[in-house]
Structure formats: structure tokens, C-alpha cells
Amino acid sequence: MYRWKKLKKEDQQKIEQFLEDYKALKPTRYSYADIKRMTGNFSDKLGQGGYGTVYKGKLSNEVSVAVKVLNNTKGDGEDFINEVGTIGQIHHVNVVRLVGYCADGFRRVLVYEFLPNHSLEKFTSSKNDANLLGLEKLHDIALGIAKGIEYLPQGCEQRILHFDIKPHNILLDHNFNPKISDFGQAKLCSKEQSAVSMTAARGTMGYIAPEVFSRNFGKVSYKSDVYSFGMVLLEMVGGMKNIIHIGAQDNSEAYFPEWIYNKLEKGEDVTIEIENEDDSLIARKLMIAGLWCIQWYPVDRPSMKVVIQMLEAEEIPPMPRNPFGSEYGTGVVKKIATVSVGGSGLTSISEESEE
């Protein structure tokens, strides 16, 4: 009887713990006093950017959270509405979970699950850190990101287009599983819409699809996120930014994706750490998939479903056609890429009405 009662008590505790954790599955509205208590009066700062400041906090059940305090002086609240309105309805293993939010006067705060291994940017900005993960793990991370992106326009009641896929917005959990974050630039549209209307470019320089800048390349759609993912893939494997220095003597520069394409076409190795033949095959697969994704015209890019098939297949995908020839009008895109490295803002665009 004693043992039976003890087991029943443990079962009850499990249920109570589950119910406590389950409450966090649905975003909760917190007061600013709750936020201060949660963060220990903002004592543990994790990072800061143009969007605001992120602090580490704890819920009542000692579950760690990341608390993003948005800048009061920036924007008209659209980023906050986008975050709560989009990420609040997403439940996917490769999308960060919104635990709660605070809208107390002019104070706007977002509370996320805490992911201890920071963002993918830490591992793409340093070759040493990237080598710590290894190419097999980078492949798993790439596949997880792809599955998260594929879910966004398909898995919810409305299509969700992220428009800011980049290493900084890919967070890693304790097992280095990737989770897409930061939906401040996202747009929602109905499932029936194949293209979205935009009056200004949005996203981060260097990862923005050409059609977001100029409608001459095609209409803006979920294929714009495919392009951004392709740039992330190339950066993951190559560990370089868009523009690289290739000549020590004349300080000449090259557009990184074009440099990769030329290397692969000639059968040459790209300058990354390769330990064995399997690593070489993984690197080649990731780079070719990335090149398929960054075709200038949306119609020439594969869907994320096809990209996932490329990444999961044992064989290496075929090389895409060369998108860097003058017949594809890449002068405009190379100009965008050059601005992407040193540019500080996005240029407004005028567009024709879209169906």
C-alpha cells in the first residue's frame, strides 16, 4: 500500500508538471512587472541589436526563457504584431516557440523558449567554430532549417513568408537542432495567393531575393525564402560572406556564389576543411543545393520540398545552369550583392499591381 501510494503521488506530480508546462504551449500575456520578475530585473543580458535587447529569464517552474525587449522608439508596432500573429500559431520542431508576450503601455516584450547554443551566425562567421560542428552536423542543421521553411507556407491556416532567413535568425538548441526565429519581417497571405504585394523591400542585405528589389525578376512569393536559404547554405559550407578577396596583390574581389559555381564546374575543391571523402560529398551536395536555390528568377528555383529531397538523397544533385552569365541580367544582382556588404538600409520600391 505504501509503495502504491508513493507511485500514485509520483504520477500526480508528473501530471501537475505536465499541466504547468502545457500552459506555456499557448502564448501567455504577461505584465511588465512579470517580465521584470522573470528576468531578475533584467540582470542577465544575452545580446543586443537594432530590434532591442534580449535577456535570459526563468518561468515559475524554473524553465529558462529568452526575453526580447523591443525598442520603443523604432517602428509603429508592426514587428510586434507580426511576431505574435505569426509565430504564436506555429507549432513545429524547427520553429522557435513563443511562450508569451507583454504589451504594457509603450512597452513591448516577447518571451521565447531559451536555446542555449546561440545562433547559427556564431558558427558561420568563424571557420574554427564551424569546424567544431563538422559537415555532417551542418548537413543536419541545413535539413532542419529546410523543413521549417517548408512548413511556414503550408502548415498554418495562412501562408507565412519569413523574408529574413539568415544565420542570425537560426537558433540552436542543446542538441544543435535549428529553430527559425524573428518573424518581424514576415508577411501573411491566404493559401490561394501565389504571390504577395509589397511596397518596400524587406529583409537583410545579402540574403534578399532579386525579385524583392526589382519586379523584373518575377513576383514575390515563398520562393523568396528559398533564395535566402540558398545564401545561408553557401555561407554555412564556405564560411564566407557574399564578397570575398581573391587577389592579395591587386586586392581583387569576387561574388562568392559565382566563385563557388566556377570552382565546382571545374571539379576543384572549395577552400573549406575536408577530413574525408564523405565530408567532401556532403559539402558538394550542400553547395549545389544552395546554387539551385539562388537562381535569379523564382521560376528557376526548386520548391523547398524538392530542396529537402536533394539534401536527403544519397547521390549528389546535378549542377544547375549557370546563373551568373550576362544573359541573365546579373549585373543588377551583383550590384545588389555589393551594396549588401556595405549597405545600411533598404531602398523603397515602386511596383505594378499584382494579382
TrEMBL record:
Domain Protein kinase: 40-325
PROSITE patterns according to UniProt: PROTEIN_KINASE_ATP (PS00107), PROTEIN_KINASE_DOM (PS50011), PROTEIN_KINASE_ST (PS00108)
Topology of the protein relative to the lipid bilayer: Single-pass type I membrane protein
Localization per Swiss-Prot or TrEMBL: Membrane
Binding site for ATP: 68
InterPro entries: Kinase-like_dom_sf (IPR011009), LRK10/LRL21-25-like (IPR045874), Prot_kinase_dom (IPR000719), Protein_kinase_ATP_BS (IPR017441), Ser/Thr_kinase_AS (IPR008271)
UniProt cross-references to SMART domains, sorted A to Z: S_TKc (SM00220)
Assigned keywords, A-Z: ATP-binding, Glycoprotein, Kinase, Membrane, Nucleotide-binding, Serine/threonine-protein kinase, Signal, Transferase, Transmembrane, Transmembrane helix
Taxonomy, superkingdom: Eukaryota
Signal peptide segment: none
Molecular function terms, GO-annotated: ATP binding; protein serine/threonine kinase activity
Transmembrane segments: none
Gene3D superfamilies recorded: Phosphorylase Kinase, domain 1, Transferase(Phosphotransferase) domain 1
Any one GO cellular component localisation term in the record: membrane
Family: Belongs to the protein kinase superfamily.
Name of the protein this chain belongs to: Protein kinase domain-containing protein
Lineage: Eukaryota, Viridiplantae, Streptophyta, Embryophyta, Tracheophyta
